């Protein structure tokens, strides 16, 4: 049985890439809801509803575990899906928070994400619940997702937008910055350049695969992995052309996504 991954778009592939690297024997099913992207500006109730629909799509494919490879959807729907689904459900916020706490030395942590994630205060809550002596500075970066989805994440426009947006951190003296949106690792070289080499960037999606791996062992459900990458499947709710282009670039092999309409399920 496969592990299901879901996101609003191509961002979740940053989590999938890590899964392919760390868990090469597992089968991966991924769905990106590009037809309804971006999730960031939507209400939490709406994101929760869309998340339930994506989860239902993957459940029909008999997945053994669900990874919400989207911070916005994790903030809006993790508790709900955990309660409703009979399989383990993992979000990206808790692993990202834990990793940031492990890395910070000066106890000043920055978090960047969508408006939805930042408004939910999910990162502050997760970080402060573990250590309330830490200072957290959160910033919504509403322009970043479209830079990635439009395949402009290496462009000079991207450099300008990232530099302008992250000016907020100039006087915050953070030593750690959480990439609290699964789209942002594609902008990582630019973000690192703007923040400076001394700031440690946390890829919450990549951290999540460590948790997935531990849970597979705990529930003893790693043993049905078959190691056949041919059975991996990628779905998008929009036209696959742009998805395939970005996915193939990012995953470094030819991705052929299938178009699906999850709304009708
Ligand atoms: N990739 C999603 C996240 O991690 O929050 C959000 C992308 C979006 O739809 N704005």
Q: Can you describe this structure?
A:
The chain is α/β, with parallel strands linked by helices. The protein contains eleven helices and ten strands. Strands 4-3-1-2-9-10 form a six-stranded parallel sheet, sandwiched between helices. The protein has a four-stranded parallel sheet with strand order 6-5-7-8. Helix 4 packs across helix 6 (122-130). It binds D-glutamine. Residues 7-9, 11, 37-40, 70-72, 113-114, 117, 145, 181-183 line the site of D-glutamine (DGN).
Please count the beta strands (DSSP E, at least 2 residues each): 10
Low-pLDDT regions:
none
Strand residue content: 15-25%
* Beginning-to-end CA distance, first to last residue: 21 Å
**Structural classification:** alpha/beta
Helix content: 40-55%
Order of strands across the main sheet: 4-3-1-2-9-10
Quote the average pLDDT: 95
Q: Helix-strand pattern, N to C?
A: EHEHEHEHEHHEHHEHEHEHE
Write the layout of secondary structure elements.
Layout: E1 3-7, H1 13-22, E2 28-32, H2 44-59, E3 65-68, H3 71-84, E4 89-90, H4 93-103, E5 108-113, H5 115-120, H6 122-130, E6 135-140, H7 144-149, H8 156-165, E7 176-179, H9 188-195, E8 200-203, H10 204-218, E9 233-236, H11 240-251, E10 258-259
Helix pairs in contact: 1-10, 2-3, 4-6, 4-10
D-glutamine (DGN) is lined by residues 7-9, 11, 37-40, 70-72, 113-114, 117, 145, 181-183.
